[in-house]
Design goal:
By secondary structure, the chain is of the alpha+beta class. The chain is built from seven helices and 17 strands. Helix 6 links the parallel strand 12 and strand 13. It binds pyridoxal-5'-phosphate (PLP).
């Protein structure tokens, strides 16, 4: 498939097979040098560690074209570091930042035709991940692993403008204190599937998870961190050891402070105070920011003044500034943009 055959505006967020992916194997205590392959299938022993005890961690980032025609990625070094943190927590051998960045560069360059044109809103989503490959039946870490990185083109997250979503306060928990909520592991998603299917059945777009110890503090959704804007224009974002440290959220906090002159507070956020905020958004790589218009807490509606028609004004400014930096329309902080071509 060449890039001419893809209808970039309408591809949605699904898997489209691209030509090349990167594979490196870990055996006898070391990762091999890694290589590109055209083979999209994985053949595993029936007792592989990943299949029995879910020993797998992943990352997500995007490659895209900038205004001046380069193909770039956004802060991939932070994805590399986070993958190391995730791997260590699941007793997996860290994959080096250098090799991770090399894999990103190689996969993007080899699949250049799948990097959507500037202005289409579509991007090449990259999925690095690693998993235990050798047979494991007693509960213990695998001895052999595979790292893989493939790309799949994804369409614009918001077709025809970002409409605010409605979320519910969820009765299921996402992460326990001292558990694995802070790492990007498949296991955190497996246990969120029931909660999200149930939320959708009840007519909600997403779940707001609370801290599982006290159920009084806001944590995050299944795959995005919260930002709130106060009525006097401050950015507030929940601080917790059990949320996933979103790169988008960290970037937005920097942009708020350094580009927009806003005050930023990373602190515990109580559910009780959410009604007093002016705007609410969910942040992650896929959408950058999804505006939240309404939160339903067991039949009680919390409606933000920004309403259900459009992003709140401050959220919009943050969104425009960060996407401007990503797309090369606004000068980026040192080291944020990795030019591949
Ligand atoms: C990946 C992820 C995010 C978003 O992180 P980004 O680095 O901004 O893409 C937020 N929460 C969870 C649970 C995630 O897995």
């Amino acid at each position: 498939m060449s890039n001419k055959q893809i209808d970039w505006a309408n591809i949605g967020f699904g898997y489209i097979q691209t030509d090349f992916r990167y594979v490196s194997n870990y055996k006898n205590g070391a990762w091999d040098e890694g290589t590109l392959t055209k083979d999209a299938t994985i053949v595993l022993n029936e007792c592989a560690g990943v299949l029995q005890y879910a020993q797998t961690v992943f990352e997500g980032l995007k490659a895209y074209r900038t205004e001046d025609g380069h193909i770039v990625t956004f802060r991939p070094d932070l994805n590399a570091k986070r993958l190391v943190d995730s791997a260590k927590r699941l007793e997996m051998p860290p994959f080096s930042e250098k090799q991770f960045l090399d894999a990103v560069d190689k996969v993007v360059a080899a699949n250049e035709d799948f990097v959507p044109p500037y202005g289409s809103g579509a991007t090449l989503y990259l999925r690095p991940y690693m998993f235990g490959t050798n047979p494991v039946i007693g509960v213990k870490p695998a001895d052999e692993y595979q790292f893989r990185l493939f790309g799949t083109p994804v369409g614009p997250y918001f077709k025809g403008g970002a409409k605010p979503i409605t979320i519910r306060v969820c009765d299921f928990d996402r992460a326990a204190p001292h558990g694995t909520g802070h790492i990007k592991a498949g296991l955190n998603y497996a246990m969120s599937l029931h909660a999200i299917v149930d939320a959708h059945q009840q007519g909600y777009d997403e779940n707001m998870y609370l801290d599982s110890a006290t159920r009084t503090k806001v944590e995050e959704t299944g795959g995005a961190n919260f930002i709130f804007i106060t009525k006097d224009g401050k950015l507030v974002t929940p601080k917790s050891s059990t949320i996933l440290p979103s790169i988008t959220r960290r970037s937005l906090c920097y942009v708020a402070k350094e580009y927009l002159g806003m005050e930023v507070e990373e602190r515990e956020v109580y559910l009780e105070e959410v009604k007093d905020f002016a705007e609410c958004g969910l942040c992650g790589t896929a959408a950058v920011i999804s505006p939240v218009g309404k939160i339903v807490d067991h039949g009680k509606d919390i409606c933000f003044p920004s309403g259900m028609e459009e992003m709140g004004p401050v959220t919009k400014k943050l969104y425009d500034t960060l996407t401007g930096i990503q797309m090369g329309r606004i000068e980026a902080p040192e080291g944020w943009i990795r030019v591949i071509k």
